[in-house]
Every structure is written in C-alpha cells, then in structure tokens.
C-alpha cells in the first residue's frame, strides 16, 4: 500500500497550493481518503483536515479549513487532491494522506479519529509565510 503525498511547498499568506495523494495497493473506492497535518514542534492533529469518499463524493472538512480548502478525487487515477486557498501561517504543517474504511460511521465523524486510519503515507511539507 502506498499513499505518497506531493505538492507541498513555500507560499505566502493568502496564496494557494494543491496537494496530491496517488493511492495504490488497495481498492480505492472501498476507502475514505483524506488528510491529517502536523505543525512544526507539535503532535499530529487527531482530527483530519479533510476527507472524501471516492465511491459517492461525500466530503468532510474541519472547521478550521471549511470554505478555504476543497477536496476531490480522480477515480481513474486513484488520486485525491486537496486544493488549499487563502492559506494562513497557521496552516503550516506536514500534511499526511491517510485511508480507512468507515463502515457505517458518517465520514464527518470517522475522520475525527486518526487512530481509525488503516494506511498512512509519507507527508509533504506546507509552509505559509506571513
């Protein structure tokens, strides 16, 4: 299983970045896929930033990013994208792609628990300068 994240970089506050997560090694449509982040010097946030169910397009956003971030999936390329707009310095973090099977749990609850994820990828660093 691989969930490599890419697309991070350095951007000024107010700018945009698009992260990608190209999943392989499992059935893409059977999983919820999304993003967690870890700010410098802090533990990884237990609540996900955003997630999507590729099977039906259901999405989830944390309150901190709702209205600024947009998640989508390409079910042919087995890739999830996170479009990040109006970036703030507090968005600076390593962003990790993760996947899990929510079963009967609504996506908005499932992605509040990093311990529920089955697979993790290597992260990509996003740095937002003020």
Helix % is under 10%
Number of strands: 11
Give Rg in angstroms: 13 Å
The profile of the biggest β sheet is: 7 strands, mixed
Give short descriptive properties of this protein.
7-stranded mixed beta sheet; mainly beta; 4-stranded antiparallel beta sheet; single chain; 130 residues
Secondary structure topology:
Blueprint: E1 5-6, E2 9-12, E3 17-22, E4 32-38, E5 50-52, E6 59-61, E7 69-74, E8 79-84, E9 93-100, H1 107-110, E10 119-120, E11 124-129
Model description:
The model has no long low-confidence stretch (mean pLDDT 96). The protein has one helix spanning 107-110, and strands at residues 5-6, 9-12, 17-22, 32-38, 50-52, 59-61, 69-74, 79-84, 93-100, 119-120, 124-129. The strands form 2 sheets. Strands 2, 4, 5, 6, 9, 10 and 11 form a 7-stranded mixed beta sheet that branches. A 4-stranded antiparallel beta sheet has the order 1-3-8-7, with no helix packed on it. It is mainly beta. The longest helix is centred in the C-terminal third of the chain and has 4 residues, at 107-110. Strand 7 (69-74) and strand 8 form a beta hairpin.
